[in-house]
Design a protein that fits this description.
The chain is 77% helix and 0% strand. It is mainly alpha-helical. It has one domain. The longest helix has 25 residues, at 3-27. It starts with a helix and ends in a 6-residue tail after the last helix. The mean pLDDT is 80.
Length: 296
């Protein structure tokens, strides 16, 4: 697959991720965060088993280990980010989560020992500036939610990098399905732990409403099963740094969906920040054609 086609798929993923803020907020009105995550992952795992059953019969040791590592990074990051939102604002959470784009080049270099290209570095810097303008976070007060969200960005940076390392030389559909299965399966211990540590005092009741069913359908089928399958299949055709730059557009997409659906209003600075972030992604992709560098 051509890299530009893979990156278009990653943009599609990011759009779906951006919509999860809205659907998650709807779903959490009818059950606790831990119960919601368990339901979301259970539906995604069931779909994986039904659709890829024949591919899951012979999972070798390497795929088992790789899938488990990816699942640990994903599960830890997801839980930290979800609970972090309970103690901090959405703008600060979006901004801190966006720091993943800054951490990924370091994780990539640390794990692979490979050089990060000049235009990718510049794209990261430009994107970070745009992210700051877009989210306008108040960093004068740091709380528990900020710390949890910051820890989650380390998990996301490692997840993106390990995804590249574990799938770069694999093109077999069977291995992709096995990695998908192991990732989702390995996430279950984390919401189970938080369920008994934090949610048991409130009970495990679920209010089955049409809104909850809609929320779970979107987040489990599209945002977990489909998106994880796409990421496992196509991220190998681009670099982890470019992938992180594309993923950094998630808060922009989430906010624009809020504007269209919930009628929220953006300021001029937010529009400028969003354009700068998009410019950072484009700079990383096309900068080498403008002024070639030795590293390219």
């Amino acid at each position: 697959m051509k890299s530009w086609k893979a990156e278009l798929f990653l943009f599609l993923m990011t759009f779906i991720w951006g919509a999860t803020f809205l659907f998650t907020k709807i779903g959490l009105n009818d059950c606790s965060p831990s119960v919601y995550m368990l339901l979301r992952f259970s539906i995604a795992l069931l779909l994986t088993i039904i659709i890829f059953f024949n591919s899951l019969k012979n999972i070798d040791k390497k795929t088992f280990i790789h899938g488990t590592i990816l699942g640990i990074c994903f599960g830890t990051g997801f839980v930290l980010q979800t609970f972090g939102l309970k103690f901090t604002s959405i703008s600060k959470s979006s901004f801190i989560t966006g720091i993943t784009v800054v951490l990924t080049p370091f994780a990539y270099k640390l794990i692979t020992r490979k050089y990060v290209k000049l235009w990718q570095k510049l794209g990261v810097i430009v994107c970070f500036i745009g992210l700051w303008l877009f989210t306008k976070p108040r960093l004068d007060v740091v709380n528990l939610g900020d710390a949890l969200t910051l820890l989650s960005t380390v998990c996301w940076a490692l997840y993106i990098t390990f995804m590249d390392v574990f799938t770069k030389n694999s093109t077999r559909r069977e291995e992709t399905a096995q990695l998908l299965f192991m990732q989702i399966l390995a996430t279950f211990p984390f919401p189970l732990i938080t369920l008994f540590l934090f949610d048991s005092s409130h009970g495990f009741a679920i209010n089955w409403t049409p809104s909850l069913i809609l929320s779970l359908s979107f987040n489990a089928i599209l945002a977990t099963f489909l998106v994880t399958f796409i990421q496992t299949s196509v991220q190998r055709y681009t670099s982890p740094v470019k992938a992180a730059l594309i993923y950094s557009l998630e808060p922009v997409i989430a906010t624009y969906l809020a504007v269209m659906i919930a009628g929220e209003i953006l300021s001029g600075a937010e529009y400028i920040g969003a354009l700068i972030m998009m410019g950072g992604v484009l700079l990383s992709e096309f900068g080498k054609f403008i002024i070639p560098s030795k590293s390219d």
